[in-house]
Amino acid sequence: MGQKFQYDESGGTFFYFLLSFLALILIPATIYYWPKKKKRDPEEESKKCQCTGCIIKREHLKNSEPWKGPKTFLIKLLIVGGWVVLILLAYKVSQFDYEMSNFDPYEILGIGMGASSSDIKKAYRRLSLILHPDKDTGNEKEFMKLSMAYRALTDEEARKNWEKYGNPDGPGATSFGIALPSWIVEKENSVWVLGLYALVFMVALPIVVGTWWYRSIKFTGDQVLLETTQMYYYFFHKTSNVPLKRVVMILAASLEFDKKNNSEIVERQSDNEEVPQLIKKLDKLNEKNKERPLCYMYSIKARALIHAHLSRIPLNPNTLEIDRRYVIGKCPYLIQEQVNCVNQLIMLAYARRIQRLPSIETIENCMKLCPMIVQGLLEFKSPLLQLPHINEDNLKHFISRKRQVKTLLQYAQMSGDDRKSLLRSLSDEQYEDVMKVLGKMPYVDFNVKCEVMDDENPSEVTADAIVTVTVELKRRNMSELFGDATPTFVENNEEEVKDKEINDADAAAKRPVWMKQKKGGGKKKKQLLIKPKMVKSKSEESSVPSSPAEKKEPRPKEKKECKEDDESDTESEKSDVETNGGGDANEKFADSSDDDSVQKSNNEDEDQEWEKLRRMHAREKALEGRSKTSHPVHCPLFPHDKQEYWWTYICDRKSKSLLTAPYHVTNLIDQETIELKFTAPHWAGLYTFTVCLRSDSYIGFDQQKDIKLDVKEAPAEITEHPQWEFEDSEEEDKKEDDAQESEYTTDEDLPEDED
């Protein structure tokens, strides 16, 4: 079989290449990049707050993208132009295919199949006089087809192949065309082709890659300048306990606010007059600090703008107000970087890499600053000022002899008439805005459960065990707590209780085999069949259920119940013996014990299966990545749209140490479950730890719950905890023992006043 490799002389196959390449680009580009105009929903517009701050903010956001209109027009123009070119190419290819598929040399020459060579020559001469391009009636395209037909019929072998196979090359010839025009490999054009190749691949591409790499290596994964991160490490390591005002100074010294490192920063001549005047209005700005870069002018200016924002001081809308919006807009993700830096320093201190250990107050001050920045409020101000139309004059009505309303939660739980009376100075439209904003604020159910997952007994915490604290967050709107909606809310709860009872009954009927209880078994047997898994986390209750040793010696309050249970069990056993006889009873107890052991093993197998499924689900969820969309935040003084985020972590208040890295919750829409893990203390005893939840958007929504761990000594036959799969040398064990001894404080070691 013959094979022929040739470049595209006519340009047909090159059009195929262009057509497919353009279609591969245009189809996904049209789907993803075609500008979609959002329809304005009148109801959605009516739900938005109509306070002065929100109106100004929406106007600024609308005008902050002046290039959005031209960019949309340019994208539409490029996509439409691409589709026009695609349609023209498709038409040209279709015409080319039509001509090639209808090529018949006998029809073109106007002769029959058995025509002689002389007839072929006569027909060619006659038609060439008419179609030759030099003639008045000439047609170059038709003349080329005429020439091709003549050549195909004058060659005897080609004519036979055509008449027999319909192909002048014969049955076995295969032609491979390269979809590039032949002029690319012509000798005359080689210099230009090589020059273009060198320009694209040896000059343009290295420049683009080098520029991207040079810019990317200056930033961390969260798009913070590496020099800024290093500066955070230096100052937070320098002082173990950093107060809130010092955190603001470090934040203002970020190199994102320096024109040398950020070309978006604008320096004006008017700053020399306006910034000093602004500094005079602010108290204790500490502008005379000599530390670098805290003493640089860009740092002092940014610090003054942050303090003016927190104090809600109006600024010149044409100069400093523009700078304030830019500086404040970058603060949340810079504060998140500060939290990460302090956390890394704490972990390095635990690993004995550094000597100075940052205190828990430092990282909490960083977290505390974020909602202050978002809401534009100082630390000691009332959280009620986060509501629209509320000022210092309105706050006088919230605190009186009759009422002491200091939080948003207290205000939401009041009756409608009382809420309205407190804001009687506002108009109906303003009061409606207050209720809109308050109703959309978060009310989070914060539940904590504690267990040791990988141990045989998950309810018992032994020394050096890995403790898993499951934090369950359920977010609701504050409108569910409104006092005027309380009767409806209670009725709904009663209906929910009834539905729950019905569902529980259905669930009991459809309960899986491994969860069913044996009929006739006493309370004692039920307790043996059900193994406690999760631990209560309330501060008044112990977080560890009683161990088997403790069950033998119950507490005074529980002794009566245990006695009654034992008596009832023994009485039932005696009655069985009396009615059925001793032998039958023994067989019955033997059978029941066998059934219990089988059911226990089945329960353990099912627990393992459920645990595997849970881990697979958690792994899949982690691979999917976390969303950064939750609920919009009402923050008229913050220049950008903000979503609700949260931090949750575990700390030891007594030793002022951080047990887990703060987990940044960015996707709390309705419900979210987080697992926090830490190593239990090395020494046995009763320990109290605190699980914290902090908002990065609102002031006054922080929560914390205490968990108590009754740490037991590990069994003597177990030299290592089963969760650790590596071995340490004796010296490292000794160092860890010393570290654990100084890291935590038991409740027994504390003075009475600290408890």
Automatic annotation (TrEMBL):
Task: Note whether Chaperone occurs among the keywords.
Answer: yes
Q: Where is the J domain?
A: 104-166
Q: Where are the transmembrane segments?
A: 14-34, 73-91, 191-214
The record's region (Disordered) falls at 492-611, 712-755
Q: Where is the composition biased (Basic and acidic residues)?
A: 495-509, 549-563, 712-724
Q: One of this protein's GO BP terms?
A: SRP-dependent cotranslational protein targeting to membrane
Q: Which UniProt keywords apply?
A: Chaperone, Endoplasmic reticulum, Membrane, Protein transport, Transmembrane, Transmembrane helix, Transport
Q: Which residues form a coiled coil?
A: none
Q: An example Gene Ontology cellular component term from the record? A: Sec62/Sec63 complex
Q: Name where it mostly resides.
A: endoplasmic reticulum
GO MF entries: protein transmembrane transporter activity; RNA binding
Biased composition range(s): Basic residues? 516-536
Query: How does the UniProt record describe the way this protein sits in the membrane?
Result: Multi-pass membrane protein
**Location of the protein in the cell:** Endoplasmic reticulum membrane
Q: PANTHER family annotated for this entry?
A: SEC63 DOMAIN-CONTAINING (PTHR24075), TRANSLOCATION PROTEIN SEC63 HOMOLOG (PTHR24075:SF0)
- Name the UniProt record assigns to this protein: J domain-containing protein
